[in-house]
Amino acid sequence: MAVQLKAARVAAVPDIAAQLDLASACINAGAESVMARDAAVAPAAGAARAPLVVIGHRGKGMNALASPDERLREVKENSVRSFNEAARVAGVGYVEFDVQVTKDGCPVIFHDDFIFTEQDGKIIEERMTDLRLDEFLSYGLQKDQDKVGRPLLRKLKDGRIIGWDVRSDDAFCTLREAFEDVDARVGFNVELKFDDDLAYQEEELTGILRTILKVVFEHAKERPVIFSSFQPDAARLMRELQDQYPVYFLTNGGTQMYADARRNSLEEAVRLCRAGGLQGIVSEARAVFRHPSAVAMVKESGLSLLTYGTLNNVPEAVYMQHLMGLDGVIVDLVQEITDAVSDFAAVVAPVAGHEDGQVGRMELDRAAPAAKTTPYFSQREISFLLRLIPELVQ
Questions:
Q1: What is the phi/psi pair of residue 262, to 5°?
Q2: What pLDDT, on a 0 to 100 scale, did the predictor assign at position 388?
Q3: Exposure winner among 113, 159, 174, 258, fewest CB in 10 A?
Q4: How many domains does the chain have?
Q5: Would you say residue 143 lies in a domain?
Q6: Which domain of life does the protein's organism represent (predicted)?
Q7: In 3D, which of 17, 19, 45 has the Cα closest to residue 384?
Q8: Contact (Cβ atoms closer than 8 angstroms) between residue 213 and residue 119
Q9: Residue 273 forms part of a structural domain
Q10: Residue 243 in domain
Q11: Which CATH number covers residue 23?
């Protein structure tokens, strides 16, 4: 049975809204010839959909330091401040963050494999897991105002190394501090972070996971927690080591290929989850849109399905995932997407007299506020849109 949750990388995104408007126009023009007669993924008319869980990516959103969008530099990612700001947004169920273990055995929250600074005019690069706790905490803003931290830089995907400058800075934190200092009402999606370029032995993975679990067991209390990882063996081992918290497998779903075949498709992800007793999958959103039939495959396997990625900052794309039956989305634009998700509850229904599946004019229910409306799609319209969207996200 799929686990029920208690109720993401931003760059230029396609104008999904414009494409959906075009699709709707095609539908209303009578494009019935392209509509499939196969079963739609949406629930039957009148059936209630479970609320879509919104998960803040690295708190209130990742830091895209080169983006012209200032919202992506609003608050330091993976910090207590970012987690609490996300928790204050009505509708956020969880915050997602990355956990690594320092050389001296302390779980800390940091995304990148390497950390950068500048000293004597030279760029210095150190592997995150080669640092002791005190060395890691010496970077960036310091909790002790009398101390000055080492300059904190970040390497971008294009190879540039720039200052990690955000509007609202905060110090780095440990996993324990997150449990102690973050609003207890928000759940934690703990990503078990490992370097894709390193080979890990099972004994090493087990030791790292046990170190993380010790902190979780001692400090989680009643807070909802789920684990996730792109590392297939880490996900499997975390499930073997404990059965108190759900474990999800993170996958690009084929949008990027790896030497480990288990990471290269949603089919492989389902196979891994079923073999290892995992509770769910976190997929790149593009993979779900490219292969909408995979949603039914995941659900039929009794797994929960979440997504992450740039498309999750587009309200229309999130709404389509809601219609497709996904359980949650990991997002960067936390306020904007939670507002949009709340709008999904606006009552929008087809014209009285039209049967479900019939293409026709749509009008707002009189009880719904005019300023906030969500389009209603019949099952046949959804089928059409799901055939259109994979072309848009190639």
A1: -65, -15
A2: 59
A3: 159
A4: 1
A5: no
A6: Eukaryota
A7: 19
A8: no
A9: yes
A10: yes
A11: 3.20.20.190
